[in-house]
Design goal:
Length: about 450
């Protein structure tokens, strides 16, 4: 789970007393993109972002429901916001996102100080909901999954003079895979692809405003186009976006292993902007578990995709998601999975313990794994992956890497940070004027998180 983040929006030094907002985001990159959309719409409506809840007349929480822990964090935060509301009675509190979609009006019963609830297809109603609340309306709930699923993701509120160096562009909403553990299809709805022309226009607008790296987003990004009249393949969209003048780098996530095609691999190999990285969730390491999860592929099929990617794109970085503690998982499953992960050698993995989600098929399965057992198994996977990541990074020490410089590093005076085309973080000493440039850096030291380096003149 990604930590809560704030949208990349400048803070206005002079604030209208009743038009200050603070936006908090939990969850995945799709949630970050949704928050950027809401921030743009609020900015367009005259609201001004502030860096703390204490100074906010509007607090928006964009929530995640993939696991239980982020939901608990949201309810804890709502408890704190009750006191904020007591200190500032005119303040407006809006809860959006996956948790809001799933809970709906029940959320208002548990947290009656919340003024509005917006679902995952209703972010474009943010200004309307806030205006209605400030006019005195109570208990606003907008969670219709059929509410204009193709609503533009890039409107006047997103046309800014400056855009982030790296930006997310959602291209498909929802999911229809129905993995047995996953709540996403229930809270995000069925797949709805954005038209190709709209996606390309948004990327062009971002590049004009300063963006140099774009990541195309979707719960299953490779499903893009299946619901459109001509049924274009994702590689066709990738090709059109890669041709946008001024775009240096192009990424996409998340990809379903079942949907990786030879055409996609060829496009990744041949398109200059397409980066040598793919996030390819495996989730489990035995065929029995994958079948119970309704993943739609076997371990042999997954390994075949990895082999094809590495043969076509030497040096490609492959990252993944790994779940432990799925119902019915045995010690034998764990042992087989660890051996498979060691053979594949992922560059990095997001690892987590299974969390029952209401309404999903897995909650009804027998042999639920005790939490303590799941966490112990999780530790074993983490230790293995940490070792593999360090070993793989160590092999790159001494190499030159093209780094997109993002700015000052969080730690260390005079240090800059950025990412390689393979999505590896690099920290190195350098002048701040390098921010926003593509810089050649020699990798001098490997770490679990990435590399230290030195600029090559």
């Amino acid at each position: 789970m990604n930590p809560p983040t704030q949208p990349a929006t400048a803070v206005h030094p002079a604030l209208a007393p009743s038009m200050a907002y603070h936006l908090i985001t939990f969850g995945c990159q799709m949630n970050e993109a949704d928050s950027q959309l809401m921030a743009g719409l609020l900015d367009q409506a005259g609201w001004c972002p502030v860096t703390s809840v204490e100074n906010a007349d509007l607090v928006v929480i964009n929530t995640c429901a993939v696991r239980e822990k982020p939901e608990q964090k949201v309810y804890s935060l709502l408890g704190e916001l009750r006191r904020h509301k007591q200190r500032r009675p005119a303040a407006t509190i809006v809860v959006t996102g996956c948790m809001a979609q799933g809970a709906g009006r029940k959320l208002l019963k548990r947290a009656p100080h919340v003024d509005a609830v917006l679902g995952t297809r209703c972010f474009h109603h943010i200004v309307e909901a806030v205006d209605r609340s400030r006019s005195g309306e109570k208990g606003i709930v907008i969670t219709d999954l059929h509410d204009d699923p193709a609503a533009p993701r890039c409107g006047p509120g997103m046309e800014r003079e400056r855009a982030p160096l790296r930006a997310f562009v959602p291209i498909i909403l929802g999911c229809t895979n129905f993995c047995s553990y996953c709540i996403v299809p229930y809270v995000r709805g069925a797949e709805a692809s954005r038209p190709q022309e709209e996606v390309v226009r948004e990327v062009e607008a971002l590049v004009r405003a300063g963006t140099r790296e774009v990541t195309l987003l979707g719960q299953n990004v490779l499903a893009w186009g299946r619901d459109l009249p001509a049924r274009p393949g994702f590689e066709a969209l990738l090709t059109f976006v890669a041709r946008v003048e001024g775009l240096w780098r192009l990424r996409f996530l998340t990809s379903h292993p079942r949907d990786v095609t030879p055409g996609l691999i060829e496009a990744m190999r041949d398109l200059g902007a397409a980066c040598e990285h793919i996030h390819l969730p495996i989730q489990a390491g035995t065929d029995r578990l994958l079948q119970e999860m309704n993943r739609g592929y076997t371990t042999d099929q997954y390994r075949a995709v990895v082999d094809q990617l590495r043969a076509a794109i030497p040096g490609i970085s492959i990252t993944t998601d790994i779940m432990v503690g799925f119902p019915g998982e045995t010690e034998e499953d764990c042992e087989k999975s660890l051996k498979l992960y060691e053979r594949i050698e992922f560059d990095a993995a997001f690892t987590f313990a299974y969390s029952p989600r209401p309404g999903t098929a897995a909650t009804q399965m027998l042999d639920q794994v005790p939490r303590k057992t799941a966490l112990a198994r999780l530790q074993g996977v983490i230790e293995l992956q940490n070792r593999i990541t360090c070993e793989r990074n160590s092999r790159e020490v001494g190499n030159l890497a093209q780094v997109l410089v993002e700015g000052r590093a969080e730690k260390g005076d005079g240090l800059l940070c950025g990412r390689t085309r393979r999505n590896k973080q690099v920290v190195f000493p350098g002048d701040r004027d390098l921010t926003g440039s593509l810089t050649q850096v020699r990798l001098t030291r490997a770490h679990l998180w990435g590399f230290s380096g030195q600029v090559v003149a």
